Amino acid sequence: MSEIAQPANIGSRAATGAALMVAARLLTRFIDLASMLVLTRILLPADFGLVAIAASLCGLTEAILELQINQALLRLPTVARLHYDTAFTIGLIRGVVLMAVLVASAFPVARFYHDARLFPLVCFLGLSPFMRGIVSPRMVAFQKQLSFWRDFAIELSGKGISFVFGTMIALLTHSYWAIALNTVIYSGAMMAQSYYFAPYRPRLSLRELHVFAGFAGWMTMAQIVSALNWQFERLLLGKVMNRSALGMFSTAIDITNIPFLALFTPMARPLLAAFSHLSEDRERLAASYQKASVAMATVGLPLLIGESLVADSTVRVVVGPAWVGAVPMVRWLALSLTPAVFTLATWPLLLTFGRTKTLLKRNLLEFGVKFPLAIAGVLWAGFSGVIAARFVSELASDVFGLFLVRGLTGLGVWEQVLGWKRSVGASLFMVLAVEGLKWLLPPVDTLAHAAVDLFACSACGAIAYTFGLCMLWILSGRPEGIEKLVFDRARHIVSSRRGKESSVFGKSVSFPVSQPIVEQGSQDSFH
């Protein structure tokens, strides 16, 4: 009996943990949005541009020195005290080296950008990755038990604390240091709370170093290249553009990334778990990957296109009319990310087979395409050239990913592309509906008009996309997928409620629930 109950228990706890992490990411992104709403009305675009340069340098350095300490502990069947001590010691050494590198590079960076303020800013922001690296290693014990409510509480409360202090400092000083303090306080709050939830008395030891050595390889290189892909643009633009323009661009990226990262980044772990269970069954793995890929495109594509459609009203409502220069950046940055939604599931698929070297190759391809195009683009067309380079590199990475999936699962390239036809068609219908509505709405020239435009266009877009998706699904013969899963779940809920109402009123009318269809739809959508 335990053999049967255990998988169900594990699946339930994994699903609950995944739901908690998605909820945590969504809530923290809402707090980020609130922080952005407040800070952009107190500080200047040049302040954000200055901090963007320092933060990009810190992020790049952190990625170069990144070690998979947590993943190494998770892979161990049992974790002893010496493992925790070694993990803490490695994190501490890494943090000290990271701080030394940042302090040593702060002065040359300040000279390179001709801005002395960067020296103390880089040194101070280095505290953030340092503190993230020395969180209590005993937190991994709860993660091994698939208990994530502590991670949820730590992440959410950390964001809340940093928001309060960052806002207070901004109101009192009107200085760019409020942005930096917001970042450092968040990391410090998370570190302190980790020791409250998972008490641990630090002790230095490297006796179990061999356990962690195997994780410093292709995956580390892949993360370094990935960090270069995301950070070098701001460092490049910081050299050739003024701080105000860079602040506009940095804020536009943050606005664009909020819904994208909040929804899809937390999905990697459950997908990795699902693919790992099916790695020996190529046919079921192919079906699982295809449904995951189609589901992500179904949700992600309208989000990014919708962001582009309401860029003007979004910028005016979220960060204020002083930031209208960021409107075209938000519009085109959102569209530049659209190729990424089609192959988001490739990353956990590659890790399932341990293809970290292939992951590195993919990241190198993206960087190799983006780097020369971004340099040429910024010199020729400014921010537009950088955004175009983003789109082309994402597209190249997508094409590469299609052939990778074919080799790992047997799914044909054309078969993968056809899986996205309903989301693409429904998105086009949404664009026509929203653009038609804009002709009837007043110009977005005041905050009130912007709020009306944002609400009306968002509602219209959601309704039009849902209607278009349902129509295309019905015309396609109601195939398995996210549409069928939602439809069956809704029918199950409605039937259950009607059955309860009938029993309450003493009627002998029955409303049978097609349980086998619901279960089959649920299983197919996941496996």
TrEMBL record:
Gene Ontology CC entries for this record: plasma membrane
Alphabetized Pfam families for the sequence: Polysacc_synt_3
Keyword Transmembrane helix: yes
Record-linked InterPro entries: Poly_Biosynth_Transport
Transmembrane intervals: 86-110, 116-135, 179-197, 209-232, 244-264, 330-350, 371-393, 447-475
Topology in membrane: Multi-pass membrane protein
Keywords: Cell membrane, Membrane, Transmembrane, Transmembrane helix
UniProt superkingdom: Bacteria
Subcellular location: Cell membrane
Keyword Transmembrane: yes
Record family assignment: Belongs to the polysaccharide synthase family.
Name used for this protein in its record: Lipopolysaccharide biosynthesis protein
Organism of derivation: Gluconacetobacter dulcium
